[in-house]
Design brief:
single chain; 88 residues; mainly alpha; elongated
């Protein structure tokens, strides 16, 4: 739970950058600021996935952990799997 809260602490920074990234600049390189925002978003997604892994290890169950992952990634990643989906 502490890891989930830590990952949620990144959310305000990430939401600010999400608008910049979503607008895109097809064919152009990112500015240093945009690159740093991407780095922060990737780290926040990684933290959310680590929290999900720890949740599963704790025995809470897939549905509970999936709900926590979705909450941690709201507005951060594209799709219902926080930017990642894997096979079962």
């Amino acid at each position: 739970m502490k890891t989930l809260l830590a990952s949620l602490a990144w959310l305000p920074f990430l939401l600010a950058g999400a608008g910049v990234h979503a607008q895109g600049d097809a064919g152009k390189g990112h500015s240093d600021k945009e690159t740093q925002m991407d780095v922060q978003r990737h780290r926040a997604m990684a933290a959310a996935h680590e929290a999900a892994a720890q949740c599963l290890e704790s025995g809470k169950g897939e549905s509970v952990c999936q709900k926590e992952l979705l909450a941690a990634c709201k507005g951060l990643a594209i799709g219902p799997y926080c930017g990642m989906k894997h096979a079962h």
